[in-house]
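tool_call: predict_structure(chain=1)
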Amino acid sequence: MTLSLNEYISAFSQFEHLSSFSQFGRGIEREALRVLPQGRLSDREHSVLIGSALTHPNITTDYSETLLEFITPVSQVPEMAIAQLEDVQKFTLSQLDGELLWPMSMPCFVEDDDKIPLAQFGKSNIGKMKTVYRQGLKNRYGSMMQVISGIHFNFSFPRSFFQSMQTIEKNTDNLDDYISDKYFSLLRNYKRFCWLIPYLYGSSPAICSSFLKNKPTDLPFKKSEKGYMYLEHATSLRMSDLGYTNSEQSSLQICYNNLSGYLDGVKNAINLPSKKFEKIGIKVDGKYQQLNSNVLQIENELYAPVRPKCVAKPGEKPSEALKNRGVEYIEVRALDVNPDSATGISVEQIRFLDIFLTFCMLENSPTLSCNEQGICEENMDEVVVRGRDPQLLLRDGEQDKSVQQWGGELFAKMTKVADLLDEANQSKRYMNALNCEAEKITHSKLTPSAKILSAIVDENQSLTKMALAKATNYRQQLLANDYQAFNAQYFSDTVATSLQKQLEIEQSDKVDFDTFLQDYFA
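tool_result:
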């Protein structure tokens, strides 16, 4: 039985169902480049003082040695998630000997992208595999794309939420299957409405000219007086063809209508040969250039603005975890780093995402045809490069709508969700967060992208100097803070444990790397 948004709101308002709205799970993964005080990439290796990038639970690297990734545990309180991230960054900065964390999504000045170092994970087979995967990314898409930073927001509803939902719907399906189906319902609506995320939070309308070096583009860039390349109405160049997209993946038909269809699509992509990538070779002159020549080397290479996730057990692939235990949470991947926050994301953003994702769960969500999914992706593509263009029209079903019209309609519906969340959490913070974002719909000059362009175009400021000033202030601010969620002993212990775990993994390998890869892909 499918209910309307209003019917769900009314039913969940009942006391016995309301408490689950104060128990959302949230985890944050924040990427940040290590840079020198003059604004160039650090050339130092990942420091053992912050632990093993292979095994530390909170501090690792992404593509490059210089691209740190901070990971928080799951928290049910937005303020705690931010506090955890502040603590992890405070500890890291205390060990970095003057290096800064770049507070933007698009990278600083990069003189030679061939000198961007691949992340290293030690001598173990799994560590070598991680580095070879990154070598493949370099050969496929270039190094520059791999030093773009983002925020991944992991979100889950408690089981009690789904139990209440089943009761309300009078549904008797297996609970785990029901949960997966409901998450896919959310994912479809996310696909429909996710253009809102770069519009509201996109913070990368301009880039350093070094980013475009040797990179062909049809985008109509303009140049600021200080040499920065920008698009007049762009919101998030990180999410454009310049950033985390993959032309080889554009032909993939990965369906979000149910778990089995999604897993089939991912499996096909992993096994689909690519003539383009075949030309790179796999093992050339005794050195691996990529893990394989398929469209996706591994599942992580699927660049999508959202993913269904399940915590994988040791040795288990992400798709195997989903198949074995169903969807446990979703990973929102469309967020630029917020340059106005020391942690790259604010507590107000978390509250808005709570509202938005709950709305996506409760709003009616019909299945998506391939054509409809393509329209959703086109809407997203348009917003990232011209989201503040007054002439822009997005496609909503059979209608063309402006950002202001469609956004206004969505915010009117989300008001009811914000009310419900405030009632469950005994606050007014959700409605305040929603109202703040609603102003950006009617006044695009309030968006982060508009403010950044105003500074570098209208005021002729240096984007690099702005970013370095913020990075310096954030470093001082975080180092001056007391630990909140963790303490110094926790970090000392975790560093030592991570280094020991890496050593144990390396000593436990029983086969050579070639055999390990054959077994992995068997």
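agent: Residues 403-425 form the longest helix (23 residues). Proceeding to next step.
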